[in-house]
């Protein structure tokens, strides 16, 4: 079955699999211990940290491993807000942030903080000028994803980072969809990423806190990960995630443009093959592997089931709330069709023939569903 839901998770990269198996043998001991097996685990963990730092262009002592990308988001946002309470309790977010960011913002608001949401245009991108207008003297933190997880639109991180720097406001960047697939612009203060998104194992995230960024843990103090992330480190998973990230960087020059061309084929052909369909997101400034479209007169969940019957695994609706059957907050913020929504995200190694087969079965699937709904005869 062609797997077209890489934005949710990538299959384990072969480089990650090989190093995971090795690290399970060599990195099982407590990396905080001074005996031989513990020192070996610490060496593997520090090497993994340095490898991730090299790919992200940061210092190894700015990188911390977490249990997930979501935990990295929670720690980054809540920790920065806690450290800057004397500055104020105002938080700025974009309207299309991942639910982990928006839920954290809601928690902050429930705790007496204030949140300003910056709208996006029809492609899903924020206007740097609008972001600048949202900043205030009491703004403690600003949040802007590197690229959208549902429609692939890249955000103007570099411009917003410069605006935040001038206003002396730290910028948090959720890079879960970009890390390993695209360069992340500089200028941010905190970053979160998720290993399974680039072909590492599930259960390992990355939190980056740049030097001179004020941050204070929102959780009880723990001795692990520089006192910033509690819990026993998953050394084998960290090693495997680092291996996958390095491998993706090495492959990106070839694989990125190849996947982008396949996505462009889908973007270009769908409106010609299927009536009453809207392809959303920026057609140019986008991630290379992701395309989202909406079909009138078709329920997204029904289309997902029909495509699954045809052998294609894709996702529908909000990538993080599809099981609730609520409209996607991203698509609502963009002002585009929110029902009959399908996200196609291609993993590494996707074949051209798989995309062509998908394009051949999709129109008939939509016609069957529209006919069953009585929209067409």
From TrEMBL:
Keyword Iron-sulfur: yes
Catalytic activity: (sulfur carrier)-H + L-cysteine = (sulfur carrier)-SH + L-alanine
Cofactors that this protein relies on: pyridoxal 5'-phosphate
Alphabetical list of SUPFAM superfamilies matching this protein: PLP-dependent transferases
Record-annotated Aminotransferase class V domain positions: 18-358
Residue ranges crossing the lipid bilayer per the database entry: none
One Pfam family, short name: Aminotran_5
Origin: domain of life: Bacteria
Keyword Ribonucleoprotein: no
Record's keyword terms, sorted: Iron, Iron-sulfur, Metal-binding, Pyridoxal phosphate, Transferase
Family matches, as InterPro entries: Aminotrans_V_dom (IPR000192), Cysteine_dSase (IPR016454), PyrdxlP-dep_Trfase (IPR015424), PyrdxlP-dep_Trfase_major (IPR015421), PyrdxlP-dep_Trfase_small (IPR015422)
Family under the similarity heading: Belongs to the class-V pyridoxal-phosphate-dependent aminotransferase family. NifS/IscS subfamily.
UniProt protein name: Cysteine desulfurase
Lineage: Bacteria, Bacillati, Actinomycetota, Actinomycetes, Streptosporangiales
